[in-house]
Every structure is written in C-alpha cells, then in structure tokens.
C-alpha cells in the first residue's frame, strides 16, 4: 500500500490539536507518518504534539503555505495529506486516500467538510462550501471544469495528492496568505482530475460561531469571487481574520 504522510500546520492550536492527533492515532490502516509544522505558537501546541509522538518541525516563518511546504520537504510518504489542526477524519482515511489515487486519472482529492461545534452542525454553511467546490471552477475555469475535471478544494476539505506531483508543480505558493489550496488545485490539474470524495470530515465551526452563518457565507463567497477574477490574495486576507 502507498505510504501516506499527514501534514498539519499549527499556530496556537492547543485547544484543538490534542483531539485531532488522538483521532489520527486510531487510523486503520495507520498513516506512514504525521508531521506537525508549528509556526511559532505561544501556547502548548508544540508540547501537545511531542507528547503524542508525532514528528514536530518548527517553521522559521508562520503562514500556512510556508508551513505546508516545509512539511512536504521532510515528509517521506508517497502521498501527502494536508490536514487542519481543528479537523477530524474517519478512521479509514488512509484507505480512502490510497484508493482514490490508485488510478492515474486522479491527481488530487479532498473530502466533504461538515462544520460542527459542541452543540450544533452548520448545515447551510457546509452545503455552500460543498457546492463551491463545483461552481467556483465552473464560473472561472469552465474549460478545466468540463474537460479536465477541475474542482477547487479548500483547506478544511483535507486535500491529498502524490508527493511527486506536489513537488513537480511547485507546491503551495508561499506568497499566498489565503486561497493557497485552490491555487494548488489549478496547478495539479495538469496531472489529472481533482476529485471530491463522497465522504465527510468534521471541521470546527469556530469562525462561523464568531461571524454568524450569514456573514460567514457572504465572506466565503465574496473572497472566492474576487479571487476568481484576479484580486490579490494579500488584499483578500484582510477579510479573513485568524480565529482560535
């Protein structure tokens, strides 16, 4: 079976990381390795990762693209899986990933993200994020959508791809503070289809809980539309504050 390396970028994720790593410890079959790339946390994030026995790397710079690229540099698996610290995955994650990439026609995959909190499930926001995977490339890259099977995946959808393809296309753009996953999908589309697997992962609703469902959906749509017409990701980042 192909070896799957799971890479988690972290920054002050002490509240969520322990649960996520415990979830990963139950994978069957297990991941080849779990790499936590910390961006200089001021809380117990790194200590929690170390107690869980995973590989911990400290990035010289914070930023998801930079940290994910750093993790990909040290990962030794055949397949790279990029996971947020506040996202829970099914215990057959590795098997699903390996099966999805078994054929040569699929270059990259991701899951359906269901946003959940302690007392609620964000059905409307989750539905929009699911549909966005399809309508965003249809609007802005119709040729790639219809002819190349392009889908635009986002971070909480747990993206995965072959390590060789990731390095071959240049990986994440370190200059992008946001929309780096969608940008990677565009680059990986040269190697094959981008597939959204019909399986669910659970992501924290902490951003929606702070903004409210309507505001969150509006911001997600606004950022996606402006990025699609070429607005700078650096400008768009001002609308997407860090929330822990």
TrEMBL record:
Pathway noted in the entry: Carotenoid biosynthesis; staphyloxanthin biosynthesis; staphyloxanthin from farnesyl diphosphate: step 4/5
Of the GO CC terms on this record, one is: plasma membrane
Q: Which family does it belong to?
A: Belongs to the glycosyltransferase 2 family. CrtQ subfamily.
| KW Transferase (keyword) present | yes
Mind listing the UniProt keywords for this protein, alphabetically?
A: Cell membrane, Glycosyltransferase, Membrane, Transferase, Transmembrane, Transmembrane helix
Source species: Myxacorys almedinensis A
Q: What is this protein called?
A: 4,4'-diaponeurosporenoate glycosyltransferase
Give the matching InterPro entries: Glyco_trans_2-like (IPR001173), Nucleotide-diphossugar_trans (IPR029044), Trfase_2_rSAM/seldom_assoc (IPR026461)
